[in-house]
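pasting for the record
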Amino acid sequence: MDILEQLGKLLLASIPTIICFLVLWVAYRQIVHKKLEQVLAERHACTEGAIQEAQTQIAKAEARAAEYEQRLREARSQIYRGQEARRRHMMEKRSAGLARARHQAEEMVKHARAALEKDVKEARNTLERQADSLADQIIASLLRLAAAR
């Protein structure tokens, strides 16, 4: 029983230490632990808030980038439409110019054909008159030769 008696004395001697420990633990919980938890909660909230704010800003930036890309596509599309309209206009002007040139060439050909036909008729009339005159000269020459014989 000697051990039990020593154990009892030891336990009795440790009661002030246990009480001191409990007082210290309660004081720690009241003074330090609550404030520490509050600071950690604030830090966590700030960190989470910063992360959420960063995610929000990233989402806004992505939305702006998408809007920018959409505007860029629209601007390119508008430029291409403008280029296509100018090209179409130039093709129409070119076609109109070609049609005018073709019409002028046809008119020139008509006038040239008319002038050529007129020249041909005049040449035929001249040849017919000359042919009649030559025929008369040939007949006269043959009649003179026949009379001379």
